[in-house]
Specification:
Spore Coat Polysaccharide Biosynthesis Protein SpsA, Chain A; 7 strands; 210 residues; alpha/beta; disordered C terminus
Length: 210
């Protein structure tokens, strides 16, 4: 069985979804982050991949993370590493079996797409869902590949390009399924707004109008 890990931040106003703040307050941006995490967890569990794990950045014991862990029945872990590459390496090093990693800000993920990604690992060393911004919203590996994530310019538009170069150098086979998009900027939020309406913000973060 392919495991599924989700990277998620604690919804602390001013520390998450800060690029949405020209459009809304810090508290409202934290509320959007909550909605995205809730949608991602719901999608992950509907995919029937197992186990589903929540890997937390910031305070793993933030009330929101504790509540959703209890509500969805998923275990919480603490991300470790000084940058995204180190955190990804640490995560995959804890698994010796097929694993998919997703973020919590890609509302177009579906259970069927996650299942297709898991199936790709039967015939490839790795699988990716490239993102429109040059990164990727999903990476899956059959076994840890630390060198794959070293020397990548995280946060730039070259992440997927550089990762492809590493894949070729390491002589790994990989699959790229459809391109997706994340909610990072105000225009992304407007694009995702209707998708998020069915995932209300929990009372743990006050809902403040933008």
């Amino acid at each position: 069985m392919t495991a599924l890990a989700i990277f998620a931040k604690a919804p602390v106003p001013g520390q998450c979804k800060t690029r949405l703040m020209p459009l809304m307050s810090a508290e409202a941006a934290a509320g959007v982050h909550q909605q995205l995490v809730l949608r991602t967890l719901n999608t992950a569990l509907e995919s029937q991949l197992s186990p589903v794990q929540l890997w937390c950045a910031g305070d793993r014991d933030h009330p929101f993370l504790i509540e959703i862990s209890r509500r969805f029945g998923v275990e919480r872990f603490q991300q470790q590493g000084s940058d995204l590459g180190e955190r990804i390496i640490h995560l995959f090093n804890t698994h010796q079996t097929p694993l998919l990693l997703i973020g919590s800000d890609c509302p177009v993920l579906t259970p069927e797409l996650l299942q297709r990604c898991a199936a790709e690992l039967k015939t490839h060393d790795a699988v990716f869902l490239p993102a429109e911004d040059g990164g990727y919203a999903l990476v899956g590996l059959n076994q840890p590949q630390p060198e794959l994530f070293r020397g990548v310019e995280w946060g730039s538009g070259r992440v997927m390009t550089q990762t492809r170069e590493h894949l070729q150098r390491l002589q790994l086979s990989w699959s790229e399924l459809e391109q997706v998009w994340d909610v990072d900027r105000p225009e992304d939020y407007q694009r995702a707004r209707q998708m998020l309406e069915s995932f209300p913000v929990l009372a743990l973060v006050p809902r403040i109008k933008a």
